[in-house]
Amino acid sequence: MDRVKDLASKKAAVIFTKSSCCRCHSIKALFYDLGASPSIHEVDHDPDMERALRRLGCNPSVPAVFVGGKYIGSAKDIISLHLDGSLKKKLIDARAIWF
Questions:
Q1: Which residues contact 66 (CB under 8 A, 6 or more apart)?
Q2: Percent above pLDDT 90 for the chain
Q3: First to last CA, the chain
Q4: pTM, entire model
Q5: Would you call 11 helix, strand, or coil by DSSP?
Q6: Region 43-48: what's the mean pLDDT?
Q7: Phi/psi at 22 (nearest 5 deg)?
Q8: Number of C-beta neighbours around residue 22 at 10 A
Q9: Is the peptide bond before 63 cis (omega within 30 degrees of 0)?
Q10: Are 14 and 31 in contact (CB under 8 A)?
């Protein structure tokens, strides 16, 4: 869990993904469309990382999105935040995007 927390705190926006996950791809594309350049960590071949994400409350384990070092949710949560306008605010507050 310490490794996940450390990686999540190193950049304003961090997404843990799997290369074969269509939801992960969609969330990455959304962040890029918003002007963010998130740090992407693939957990395809790292079962310890995936277990650590689950222990932190990430369910499903991917995509797991951290903004400003805090877990803000999975794909469903991120889409909800985007639709109500609060995702952009979170990204601005964390200095992941500038407007």
A1: 8, 9, 13, 14, 15, 16, 72
A2: 85
A3: 33
A4: 0.94
A5: coil
A6: 91
A7: -70, -35
A8: 9
A9: yes
A10: no
Give pLDDT, residue 92: 96
For 72, the enclosing helix (H) or strand (E) is: strand 70-73
36-55 burial, b at 16+ Cβ within 10 Å, e below that, comes to: bebebbbbeeeeebbebbee
Is 90 exceeded by the pLDDT of residue 68? yes
20: tokens are 């074969």
Count of CA atoms in the C-beta half-sphere (13 A) of 29: 6
What whole-number distance in Å separates Cα of residue 94 and Cα of residue 66? Answer: 10
Tokens standing for residue 16: 């843990």
Peptide bond into 60 cis (omega under 30): yes
